[in-house]
Amino acid sequence: MTRAILLVSLLASACGSSNDSRHIDDACVAGVNTSTLTGPASYACHDPFKSLVTFTNNTCAPLKVTGVKIHAITTSGACVPPGDYTYAGTTVPAGGEMTVLDLTGNMFCCTAPGPCPSPLECDETYTLTVQTPAGDISKDETVHLSLGGCDVVCP
């Protein structure tokens, strides 16, 4: 009986519960990568555009985010969206989640000579695309702009 207890004790020590040990049943199983996009739902004159993009790497190896592209279209009103731009990426560790874009952009503005006509109400949809070799993930954010009488002239 003592030998049986000693053998069980030795086996438990050898297998251990250490996270450094790899067991056959610990094999990595890759999942689907995901991203989230958050930002304000509306803006007024003097407000800067803000957007936060997080990315979750559900693969078994680090994944390079090659860039985060922003594209905007006006869905209603007379506003002119900014041009496309791609921000630099970063590497997200296997199984990790990290912020890949924390953007505080320029203030909303009006075309020269300014100020904006009053009233000026617009809706724009911003598409932010996380670009990776494993595939791109796009998220849309629709925002409302209240720019009537705005005195900020676009550069």
Any overview of this molecule?
The chain has 155 residues and is mainly beta. The chain has a single domain (30-146), classed as Immunoglobulins (Immunoglobulin-like, Sandwich). The protein has one helix spanning 2-15; strands at residues 34-38, 42-44, 48-56, 63-64, 67-76, 85-88, 91-92, 97-107, 121-131, 137-146. β5 and β6 (85-88) form a beta hairpin. It is elongated and about 60 Å long. Residues 1-24 have low confidence and may be disordered.
* Total domain modules: 1
* Helicity level: under 10%
**How much strand?**
35-45%
Please write the string of helix (H) and strand (E) elements: HEEEEEEEEEE
- Rg computed from alpha carbons, rounded to a whole number of angstroms: 25 Å
Uncertain regions: pLDDT < 50 for 5+ in a row?
Answer: 1-24
Count the beta strands. 10
Could you give me the name of the CATH homologous superfamily?
A: Immunoglobulins
Q: Specify the CATH class.
A: Mainly Beta
Tell me which CATH architecture applies here: Sandwich
Shape: elongated
Sheet having the most strands:
5 strands, mixed
- The CATH topology: Immunoglobulin-like
The rounded distance between the terminal residues' Cα atoms is 85 Å
Strand order of the largest sheet: 2-10-9-5-6
Question: What structural class do you assign from the helix and strand content?
Answer: mainly beta
Mean pLDDT: 85
Total helical segments: 1
